[in-house]
Amino acid sequence: MAVTGYCLKCKKTVEIKDAQPITMKNGKPATTGVCPTCGTKIYKIGKAA
User: Structurally, how many domains does the chain consist of?
Assistant: First the structure.
């Protein structure tokens, strides 16, 4: 299952590399990983489908 997110550096939607589900301090789910093109961290708030 590929999780996509928006890279602010590349300014496009990319597939998140090394995606890991996390829980933020307020208890809400999120996904974090890196952009496969430039290596910038990507955060996607919400449960990964």
Answer: 1
